[in-house]
Amino acid sequence: MVGGCPTLTAVTRFGGRPLEPPPSLRYVDRSMAQFNEESRELAVKVVYYGPALSGKTTNLQALYEKMDPKVRGRLMTLDTKDDRTLFFDMMPVFFRTPGGVKVKIKLYTVPGQVMHESTRRIVLQGSDALVFVADSRRSETASTLAYWKDMLRNLEANGLDPHAIPIVIQKNKMDLEDVRDDEFADLSRGPKVPVVPAKAIQGEGVLETLRVLLALCYRDMDRSLGLSKRFALPEKEFLGSILSRVEAR
């Protein structure tokens, strides 16, 4: 048991057919933790996952600089001597919609170093959507694939269905030489996982990645919570309320 949540063994064999989870190992219902009826508060947890030095922290730093200070929380980062994120970054974004729904979006990163797999698994608990930040250089192909599989295993260990949770792949470091010219076909995934090119160190593609992910996230929550019908929160208003504050600077 981790953090009060039971851990589950992996139920998908990579490279083969998905295995049906036993009755005692069903995926968790993410909608139960997303919306608080009494306070009319919607909480969304977004996690940036990927290999060490792929650009996860750079993404959050770029978003932080673009964001309206009135709605952004504190960007908390813990670095090691070699300037790598040891634990995780966390940045909350909060606002209230015209329909009276309070929305909190928390952006996290995970530590990329191999030794911190258990920390990555814990940070993934209760995630609503993920950005997989991939280094687009050909030399990083093996590492990218290894961390993709690591993410899928840790999702299932937390009872999260990797085939259902919204995921966007960010093809980062497009400003460097020897970048891949494919769309990460080696990563086993469904057709609904989009790929967004980026140069996060220059701030390019960072906002676009978040926009695509939040659109997927909204549609996922609308199916489970009825955001549009029950709470008069259409997709355009949801995205506009967030992105207008991110693009405010």
Give keywords.
about 250 residues; alpha/beta; Rossmann fold; 7-stranded mixed sheet; globular; disordered N terminus
Outline of the structure:
The protein is of the alpha/beta class and 249 residues long. The chain is 31% helix and 17% strand. α5 (206-225) runs antiparallel to α7.
Care to describe what's here?
The protein has helices spanning 31-34, 56-66, 117-123, 141-157, 206-225, 227-231, 235-246; strands spanning 35-36, 41-49, 90-96, 102-109, 129-135, 167-172, 195-197. Strands 1, 2, 3, 4, 5, 6 and 7 form a 7-stranded mixed β-sheet that branches. Helix content is 31%, strand content 17%. It is of the alpha/beta class and 249 residues long. The chain has 7 helices and 7 strands. α5 runs antiparallel to α7 (235-246). It has a single domain (32-246), classed as Rossmann fold, CATH 3.40.50.
Number of strand segments: 7
Q: Per DSSP, what share of the residues sits in E-state strands of 2 or more residues?
A: 15-25%
Total helix count? 7
Q: How is the main sheet built?
A: 7 strands, mixed
CA radius of gyration is 18 Å
CATH topology: Rossmann fold
Topology:
Layout: H1 31-34, E1 35-36, E2 41-49, H2 56-66, E3 90-96, E4 102-109, H3 117-123, E5 129-135, H4 141-157, E6 167-172, E7 195-197, H5 206-225, H6 227-231, H7 235-246
Parallel strand pairs: 2-4, 2-5, 5-6, 6-7
Antiparallel strand pairs: 1-2, 3-4
Helix pairs in contact: 5-7
